[in-house]
Amino acid sequence: MTTPDHEHDLLLGAFARTVAERGYPRTRPRDVADAAGLSEAAFHARFTDLDDCFVALYRHCTGLLRSRADAAFRAAGSDWRAGLSAALGTVLAMIAASPEHARACLLDVSSAGPRVRLERLRFLGGLRGLLRGPSPGPVPDSSPGPGRDRGPASGPDPAPEPDPGALPDVVRDAIIGGLYGTVYARVAAGRTRELPDLAPALAAFTLGYFAASDAAVSR
């Protein structure tokens, strides 16, 4: 059984606050340690450098987002459209509730090193599973959650792709990019709290692609 590391959690919270205030390029390990009320030695005992701390924060935040989105999706039962809308609303509400974490994980991630940017790519790629359409089985997840290694993701086996009407990966990636860009713009403008209000429009935008695909298949 793993013993919770309270100081590790303090440092992650302090990292998010400090990066939100100073920006990642101007943040130093000492700044994070001071914000957490700990010594710089305590920081280096847990992280090799700032990028290592950023990876830990990013995995923690995206792991929570994905697990709660999946739960909202499954709670809708067989109505996958309602599940997708619920998952999207859950994600937007969670981001809005934590502007400091949102700023770090959406804006400052681009200023970090390649390890952190790779985590972003993995997370966004893992979101394809929520856009698989009326496919049976659990929501597949290829993104690393809290405590997962960078190797193959653990968790449920990927569900089979739907046959007719399935969206190609390039289309799903385009949808994810559009949603990500919209959220990014709100966070960059300091309007993070408004994100839940966008849920109905963004759900309609996303589901519109499936409607178009269904219409094409029925021709």
Shape: elongated
Mean pLDDT: 85
Helix/strand order: HHHHHHHHH
CATH class: Mainly Alpha
CATH topology, anyone?
A: Tetracycline Repressor, domain 2
Question: Could you name the ranges where pLDDT drops below 50 across 5 or more consecutive residues?
Answer: 136-140, 142-164
For the terminal residues, how far apart are their CA atoms? 56 Å
Rg from alpha-carbon coordinates: 18 Å
Strand content: under 5%
Please specify the SSE layout and strand pairing:
Elements: H1 6-22, H2 29-36, H3 40-46, H4 50-75, H5 80-97, H6 99-107, H7 114-126, H8 169-188, H9 199-218
Quick rundown:
Keywords: DNA-binding. The chain is an all-alpha fold and 219 residues long.
Descriptive key words:
single chain, 219 residues, mainly alpha, Tetracycline Repressor, domain 2, elongated, DNA binding, Homeodomain-like_sf
Structural summary, described in words:
This is TetR family transcriptional regulator. GO terms for molecular function: DNA binding. Keywords: DNA-binding. The chain is an all-alpha fold and 219 residues long. The chain contains 9 helices and no strands. The protein has a single domain, classed as Tetracycline Repressor, domain 2. α1 crosses α6. The radius of gyration is 18 Å and the shape is elongated. It starts with 5 loop residues before the first helix and ends with a helix.
